[in-house]
Amino acid sequence: MTNLSNKTCEVCRVGAPQVTQKEIDSFKPLIPGWKITTVEDVNHLNRVFKFNNFIEAIAFTNKIGDLAESEGHHPAILTEWGSVKISWWTHKINGLHVNDFIMAAKTDELLK
Amino acid sequence: MTNLSNKTCEVCRVGAPQVTQKEIDSFKPLIPGWKITTVEDVNHLNRVFKFNNFIEAIAFTNKIGDLAESEGHHPAILTEWGSVKISWWTHKINGLHVNDFIMAAKTDELLK
Description:
112 residues
């Protein structure tokens, strides 16, 4: 399995397939800090990142913002004093696409 | 009633009083776009702001961040494509302080 974070999001249209369980089993070990949660029947990939203060948190929020714009795929970002929670999912298919796993891996890379 | 947004947050310590219903009745008409919601028994002041894209949303997030740092009072900011949800409350008292109404009014001012 190649490094997820080196991949680029593919164009995702309504009706594109969600990731299969086999794909999840393959991708998930590459992003161990992320959890799959279900909100109103829609799966999301979530991770909370901790920081020392608000300024560091919002700086990370902006890094995620730049990444999201560059890939044309946008998460929900919950910024609070000392923490940023990122949720990736694909609105067009109401669930998880391979793009979301790629973006989770790229998110992890931003901290390195 | 003077303009809430012209006020400055006071220092808030553990044990400080939450806003009274009389204060809420006085402040709430000054910030009509905000709703009080209760999450796990803690009241929050929430408002969702809509934008045309992700860049505008994250630009507003940064304005809120600057405001929060300048006042030393920090909200939860949920940034998504085209929207920013702001939640003000006071962690130290697990509820709403007059500061939160001041910050909600200052948040509204940022859009003017």
